[in-house]
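Office hours follow-up: a student asked to see two folded examples consecutively, so here they are.
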Amino acid sequence: MGYVLSLDEGTTSTRAVIFTEDGRTVAQSSQEFTQHFPRGGWVEHDPLEIWRTSRQVIGSALGKAQLTGADIACVGVTNQRETTVVWDASTGRPIYPAIVWQDTRGSEYVEQLSENADDIAAITGLPVNTYFSAIKLMWILDHVEGARARAEKGELRFGTIDAWLLFNLTGEHVTDVTNASRTMLMDIRTGQWSQHMLDLTGIPEHLLPRICPSVGELGTVRSNQLLSGTAVTGVLGDQQSAAFGQVCFSPGDTKVTFGTGCFLLTNTGTEIVRSNHGLVSTVAYQIADGPLQYALEGSIAVAGSLVQWLRDNLGVISSSEQVETLAASVEDSGGVFFVPAFAGLFAPRWRPDARGTIVGMTGFTTAAHIARAALDSTAFQAAEVVDALVSDVGTDLRAIRVDGGMSVNDAFLQFQSDILSTPVVRPKETESTAVGASFAAGVGAGLYSHGDVASLWRKDREFVPHMDSRTREHLRARWNEAVERSLNWEH
C-alpha cells in the first residue's frame, strides 16, 4: 500500500499527517511555532522556524508510523494563505520576517489603491485590504533597506507559505492557483499574474513564482530531504484544501472551517460569482490542465485564536482544551457579547477601524461567561457570513459541513446550528485541511480519480437547530448592537 503525506502549515502550528490511500489517518505530528507581535496590528512569523518545524514533523510522523520516505507515494501541501515571505534567490535566506495574513500594516497602500478598487475587484475578485499579499509585499519592498533595488535586479523571490515550503522542499519557485488568487496580483479569469495589477502596485514580475494547477506535479523533493525523490502532487491554500477534504465539488456545496480564523467557502463551479454583500470571489481548485473551479468565500480573522488569547493574554484558562469545560459550566453568556475585532472585522463588514470589545458585563459576570461569549462570537460571525452568502446566491443552504479545531466541541456546533437555523454536519476527520491536501495529492499522483474522492468522505454527526425563532432573533440583534460598539476605534 502506498501512503500519502500531508504537510499542513497553519497560522500557529505545523502538522504532518500520513494517510492510507483511502483517506484513513496512520500517524501525525504537530508543533507550534512562535507568534511575533512587534507592535499593535503587526503579526510576524520566522520563515526559518516554519521550515524547521516542517522538517521535524515530517520526521516525527514517519517515525510514529514506522515508515521511511520510500513508503510515501506522494506529498500534499496546504498552508496559511496571504502570509508573505521574501527571500534571497541565491542563498534562500529570508530578508525579513514573514508578514502574516492577520497583519494590518500597509494602510497607506490601501488608500493609494482604493481609487482603483472596482478594477481590482473585477480582476482579482478581492477588495483592497491589508489582508492580501500584495499590500504586504509593497510594504517590504519600500521598508526593508535595498529590497526594491534588489528585487528589480532579480535577486529576490516572493512567495506565500506554500511557495516558501516548495522552494525548500524541491528547489522550485512555484505556487498553486488557489494561493496565487489570494495575493491580489492574479487575474482570476485567466489564472495568470495580471500585468495591470503589477503596474498598479509597482511589483516586479520576476519576483513572483510560476503559477501551477492545484492538482498535478509541482516538483520532486530534493535529495537531501527525508522524502527524497517523492513528488509533490497537490497544493492548496488551507481553506480551499478544507473544501476539497469536505468534497465540496458541486455548486452550492459549502463548508465552514473553525481554525485560527473562521472561513466559509461555497463552490460556484466554473462561474465567477461576484458578491454584493462583502464576500470575495476566489479560485476553489484546478486539476491538471482542467478548467478553473471557483468559490465565494467569507473570512473571519479571529475564531480559535481567541481561545489562545484567553489562555496566553488573560490567563483565564491554562490550556485551550479547558475552554469547552469552562464555557459549558454556565447556561449561556449571561448577556455578555465579545466582538474579537483585534485586527478589524473582515467579511462581510470589512471594517479595519473596529477593535475588540466585550459588552454586557455586570457584577454577576464570571470567567465562564466570558469564555462562553468568546465561543459564541465565532457562531455569530459565521452566521453573518452565511447571511451574506444566501443573499448573493439567492437560495438557502441545505446544510453546512464544518471542520477545524473548534468543530470537536458539540455544544458550540449545536449553538452554531441554532443561530444559523441550518443543519451542521461534522465529518469523522475534523482536520479537513490535511485531508484535502492528501486527496489532492492522491488525485495528482493517479492513486484515484477526482470522482473517487467523494466516496472517501465519512460523516460523524449532524446537528439540527432547536432554538425558537424569537430567541434567535433577539440574540442576533444584541450581537449586532455589540458590533456597532466596536466600530470607529482606529482612525
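And the second, which I mentioned at the end of office hours:
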Amino acid sequence: MVYESNINITIDTICPWTYLARRRVQRALDQVRAAHPDCPTTFKIKYSPFQLYPHANKEGEDRYAWYKKLRYSDSEEKMEAYTVLMSAYGADYGINFKFGGPVANTLDAHRVIQHFQAQKGAEVADKLVESLFSQYHEHERHPSSRETLLAATAAAGIPEAEAAVVIDDPRAGLQDLEARLQEQRVNGVDTVPFIVVEGRRRDLQLEGAREVDEYVKLLEQTVRESS
C-alpha cells in the first residue's frame, strides 16, 4: 500500500532562507526518490503561511535599506557580507539572489497561494510559489502587487480571468488565511522556514534552513517508519 506523506513547508515569500530551504528540500527529494525507486512512500509538498513582518505596508519600501537597518543596524559592512554569503549559497541551488527592489506586506501573496492550493492542488501551488520567490528574490519585484500575482498565477497555468477574481478581491480567501495564520501561532511557529514531514507513526520537523543531508535523513526516516 502506498503511503502519501505531506511535506508542509511554512513560508514567507520575502524570506531568502525559505527560498533556499525549499530548493534544498527539492534536492533531498530527488536524492531519496533516486535511492528508492520502488519506495511505497510518496511525498507531496504543501505550503503553510507565515508573515515575518505583518505590519509592513502594502506600498513597499526600499528592500536593501530596510533589511540593512532591521537586521544589521545600518552597517553597510555587515550588509555586504550578508549579500556575498547569500549569493554564494544561492548559486549552489540555481538561485541568483538580488537585493534591491521593494519589500512590502505579503498578506495578498499568501491569500492567493492558499486559495489556489486548496482549489487546484499541490502542483499548481508549487509553481505559483516558485514564481513568487523568483520574482522577488531574483528579479527585484514587489512581493504582492497585482502585477506580481498575475505573473505568478500565469506561471502556474491559471487563466488570468480566474486569477484576477481572487487577486482583486481582498476578502477572497482572507478568512481561511487568517485562520491558518492563527493556527501557526497556536502551534508555536514563530519563524520560517519551518518544515514538517508527516509520517505514518509520527511527524518529523526541522526549523531553519538546513543542509540537504539533514532533509534526506528526515525523509529517509519517514520512509522507514512508513513501511
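Two things to take away from it. Residues 16-35 form the longest helix (20 residues). The mean pLDDT is 95.
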